[in-house]
Write a sequence for this structure.
């Protein structure tokens, strides 16, 4: 008997990330209320991040390096905002998709060919998820570390040759 795709850590990891932003199909009333609270928290966090990045963008208007760096942070926040708005607008359809996937794909038993296809899909999905998560965390880490590092002190070459 082949293992079901729902036993995979890729499905577990994806479910955890989807739960973190409040988009998961819950069966109990308490679970639905918790997911609604998480969605509201996500909206507030995105709005706060937007305010901080726009403020950073405003304060570094004259410096091209800082402006480019802050512009990339704005794109990161914008991408998160887009995902949140897109999921929220189609939340019912997305939750139906999760129910359908749980019922028909994740917890079914496949023959060898189907299991191999699911393993290939899971491997690709894990790569995409790990890339996205690592890029997001790298952005956050660099955002916090950059002020601690400070500006490098360069010695001008023209001073050395006088």
């Amino acid at each position: 008997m082949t293992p079901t795709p729902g036993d995979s850590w890729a499905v577990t990891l994806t479910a955890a990330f989807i739960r973190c932003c409040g988009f998961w199909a819950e069966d109990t009333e308490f679970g639905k209320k918790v997911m609604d609270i998480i969605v509201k928290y996500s909206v507030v966090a995105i709005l706060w991040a937007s305010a901080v990045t726009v403020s950073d963008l405003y304060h570094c208007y004259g410096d091209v390096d800082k402006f480019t760096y802050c512009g990339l942070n704005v794109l990161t926040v914008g991408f998160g905002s887009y995902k949140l708005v897109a999921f929220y607008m189609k939340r019912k359809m997305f939750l139906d998709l999760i129910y359908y996937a749980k019922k028909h794909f994740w917890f079914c038993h496949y023959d060898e060919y189907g299991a191999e296809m699911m393993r290939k899909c899971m491997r690709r999905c894990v790569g995409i998820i790990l890339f996205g998560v690592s890029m997001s965390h790298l952005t956050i880490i660099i955002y916090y570390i950059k002020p601690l590092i400070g500006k490098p002190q360069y010695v001008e070459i023209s001073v050395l040759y006088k």
Remarks:
- Residues 73 and 143 are 8 Å apart (CA to CA).
